[in-house]
Amino acid sequence: MATRFPEGFLWGGATAANQLEGAYQEGGKGLNLADVLPGGKARLELLSQTGFDFEIDKSKYTYPNHEAIDFYHRYKEDIALFAEMGFKVFRLSIAWSRIFPNGDELEPNEEGLAFYDRVFDELHKHGIEPLVTIAHYETPLHLIKEYGGWRNRKLVSFFERYVRTIFTRYKDKVKYWLTFNEINGATHMPLFGLGFSPESEETRLQDSFQGLHHQFVASAQAVKLGHEIIPESQIGCMLIYAPVYAYDSNPENVMHAKQEADIFNFLSGDVQVRGEYPYFAKRYFKENNIELDIQDGDLETIREGTVDFISFSYYMSRTDKKIKTPEEMGQGNLVGGVKNPFLKASDWGWEIDPIGLRVSLNELYGRYQKPLMIVENGLGAYDKVEEDGSIIDDYRIDYLREHIEQMGEAIEDGVDLIGYTSWGCIDLVSASSGQYSKRYGYIYVDKHDDGTGTLERKRKKSFYWYKDVISSNGENL
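Request: output the structure for the sequence above.
Response:
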């Protein structure tokens, strides 16, 4: 059913600096986490193991993030293509180590600041609103090696200096901000979000929730600073969201699914939106021997620094049961669970559940009554260039159409949904697998896992489809 989206709905696409900029040592930029993560299977192994050493070893691995798709030099060409599709908004992140190469300097790197000035100016030239993620899996490497990442409270003040710098610099250019990307995913994969590799499984939860607490304080400080420096700013949190279905109607599995959803989907949301730790956190912390070092003023800061809106990524739902065998397990984006017999999966094993997006929107809006924005959603797939140069990605169009239809249903349900930026609007390096071949974009980039390619941009079939979706405000799907 075609649904009229609200007037002024923010259609666009989403990216992250470490996955598309490249130029990893240009413009005074320091190394960050993504720069030391190799491509391919090696990345997945490192993400799931303990004790990663954060060193670059080009004799053993490839590092696709170093060049990525070279947005650093090609941003004008790419933004022109986004404008051709009719983007109202473009989600990008600032690489912290472009602004503070080590993360703990007193003065910022002017070359890095000037680069984002140019990008924002180019976006505005085309009438596109920037939506900026402040921290998107890009912790400066020095802060990881020297301080142990977000386990160390010192990062709160380093982050505040970084935030104050970019808010002051871009106050007339950026209205929409997000603090930490997929903040709640940090406990599953602390390497990405918190910038440390767990020393052991026994210490993972304690260290992760302590690091998360530091990020909650830092996020709240950022919201307060933003409202002070940019009074008309809108600052959101960013969650990875996956509704949790019980595998069956066994009450034990229903209760298990509820508890999993509470911890994964709602703990971080409650802190950032309601301004306090939820009631169920106490028991979870006690049963998992988690003791947070909460300093004077922390809870007050969190209470005063609640977000203006909620943004989230949605790729899949999760189905779970209390007792499961390895054979029953499904694959997914940071989220475990068992295979759902009613759903098909992508080339990478991620289950496809458009109705789950409507479920998610209703759950989030029902709980918080704050405006919502979907800032990641998309299909990672292998694309083939035909002999005539065309890329016929009907599978991607089908995936996006079905999800956008469910967004329309949620709006009919009464949900206040203000925007949609599909993930990887131009092909980029996958965060989870470090591959080029896992493509999400409307724009094909000629770059391959073996490092070959011309970086030429080509419009896929989905490019023209999405252009029509935007120009009709969601009516032509």
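The domain at 10-471 is CATH 3.20.20.80 (TIM Barrel).
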